[in-house]
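Quick sanity check, DUF8207 domain-containing protein:
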Amino acid sequence: MRSRRRPSSLTEISPLARLPYFQKYPPTDMSPMVRPFHPTATPSLRQPPSFLQSTVIGEHQPEEEEEESSVASSSASLLDMQGSQAFLEQYNHLPRIYVERMIRDTSNAIDTTFGIHYDVETDKWTMGRTPVTISDEDLVVNGIRYKGTAGLYELIIMNEPDESLVSKQDRSNYKQIIIATHVARRNYDPTDQIRGNKSKKYKLIIKPLLKEEEEETKRGRAKSGSGIFKELGRPTEYKYWNSVHELIRDLEVLWGEKMAGNTGVQNDIISIVEELYEEGYIKKPTRPFLRQLV
């Protein structure tokens, strides 16, 4: 196999490093706003820092293991670059502090399960499979800009965030980023199960935020989920579910019962059809179609 020449600096593999907006920003005094950082070791490829190591999580899938291994291998060359300082200087002062921690960490302080990763091959930061852009101090995910603060970077990057730096707005932004990137779900699939683990961060921060979002979603459905029932002149019924696959399975069972002569399942069938419509999986059913269901 023909060996590949190792780039001598980040600019050889990333044209982004030469763009004007990656110039070095004037430093500001951020010391009161971030936790002290005293690197105790210089990273080496023989003992890579924790954010490049794969972490075993609950109910790990083979595809996830392969993906995390790929993340580690594609990111490892970042440590071997003579131009690592130039890489850091792309970033404004606050994100630069946390990027440097990721590079230097050898104490498993970095969140490698739910956190952000840098992929040298694509020259992008990602959470799960979702690209994340560091713009000035802010983070941009799916076109939405989140204000970059020490608290938000703590939540996204650190295994044990310093909660004295985390504001209510930081927690809200972090929740939206977790949901937008699907980083807490198996295979980063929004319809798949949550992939929790035993870490303090998951138990005390991520799990409560996901539960909070679930409750908000249920309250929203209870307020708005009555359109199709109104068209049929029936009382509204609510069905709570975890994935679209669960809905489809239930619909198949109920339809089989209806075909067998069970006349008591119509409302359940209509409820599932309404959920599929409100979540965007199907077009709005026509009145003649709905009449066929009952």
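Posting the structure with no commentary besides this: Residues 6-32, 39-65, 68-80, 228-238 have pLDDT under 50 and may be disordered.
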